[in-house]
Amino acid sequence: MSKRDYYDVLGISKGASADEIKKAYRTKAKELHPDRNADNPDAESQFKEANEAYEVLKDADKKAAYDRYGHAAFEGGMGGGPRPGGGMGGNGDFASAFSDVFDDLFGDFMGGGRGGGGRNRATRGADLRYNLRISLEDAFSGMQKSITVPASVQCGSCDGSGSEGGAEPQTCPTCSGMGKVRATQGFFTVERTCPTCSGLGQIIKNPCKTCSGAGRVEKERTLSVNIPKGVETGTRIRLAGEGEAGMRGGPPGDLYIFIEVERHKLFEREGETLFCRVPVSMASAALGGDIEVPTIDGGRSRVKIPAGSQSGRQMRLRGKGMPGLRGASVGDMLIELAVETPVNLTSRQKELLREFEDLSEDNNPESKSFFKSVKGFWDSMKG
């Protein structure tokens, strides 16, 4: 069976550019890979055919020979395809051809393309997290808070280079500065981090005695953090450049302050709204009157209780809640009444309450309505 034209195999025209050839092969390699075509018995042979076509067309000299003589340019020897020293053959087809597009397919996953990690020896420092607990009063008014953060800082002895005296690192002999090494296994080329330089692409012959070649040392730092008004649990504050120092002169990471607002004894919070549950006596709830309630700013407000108030009744104090985190808005405070039943009554108090109960038949409309409904329910069940 005669071989197909290499351009037809990749689905391109004869005048295709190098980038177009590479793009076409990449598409075919994904489409025809045997692992993706378990139900197609022809996938493997088509896959090899695409590899063979790309191996020729990616090389300017081989492409010129193929354009002039066709497949005859490579005939002779074992099977009529490009050979080692002039091409490909056997299981080397995919390893040779696919290595050129390996970075395009997996470059981002592996760290930025061929040798991407090794050519930039400086690496950014890690970000740090600090959990900060504050009171509701501090969240209301805002504050300046000093915190102590254990972190890595740039080594002063070598200025972050990791080398004694600040000397420049040398190219890693194992990966030739690429930061990665490759191994061919059958059809696949496997790329992994260089074990000698750990992906940096460079090694230090004479490490700094202070930091042992890391370019950074452990040290506690004291920072001043501005906590704005209105922060809530979960609010995140970013301090740029205050994280771990970078490796070998790389930029530092960031520090993230995560806020946790402690529970308050008097107030509950929901966004900008504050809730305060205030107990009142039966007499005060029945007769009405004024009560004094606290506010989050440390002040006091007088609230009028309407006569006949029940437990759960709410009254709003406008502008007495929490400030908004962004903007000039201020929430409200809701006062919730809790009518308290007296305990530990004296004999006289019990006597007065019984007398009051005998006289209050028409003073409990809710109870009267409820028991009337209960009686109707029982009567209907009997019917």
UniProtKB/TrEMBL annotation:
Record localization: Cytoplasm
Occurrences of domain CR-type (ranges): 142-220
Location, primary (coarse class): cytoplasm
CC annotations in GO: cytoplasm
Name of this chain's protein: Chaperone protein DnaJ
Source organism (scientific name): Thalassococcus halodurans
Stretches assigned to the J domain: 5-70
Keyword terms: Chaperone, Cytoplasm, DNA replication, Metal-binding, Repeat, Stress response, Zinc, Zinc-finger
UniProt cross-references to InterPro entries, sorted A to Z: DnaJ (IPR012724), DnaJ_C (IPR002939), DnaJ_domain (IPR001623), DnaJ_domain_CS (IPR018253), HSP40/DnaJ_pept-bd (IPR008971), HSP_DnaJ_Cys-rich_dom (IPR001305), HSP_DnaJ_Cys-rich_dom_sf (IPR036410), J_dom_sf (IPR036869)
Gene Ontology terms for molecular function: ATP binding; heat shock protein binding; unfolded protein binding; zinc ion binding
Known role: Participates actively in the response to hyperosmotic and heat shock by preventing the aggregation of stress-denatured proteins and by disaggregating proteins, also in an autonomous, DnaK-independent fashion. Unfolded proteins bind initially to DnaJ; upon interaction with the DnaJ-bound protein, DnaK hydrolyzes its bound ATP, resulting in the formation of a stable complex. GrpE releases ADP from DnaK; ATP binding to DnaK triggers the release of the substrate protein, thus completing the reaction cycle.
Names of required cofactors: Zn(2+)
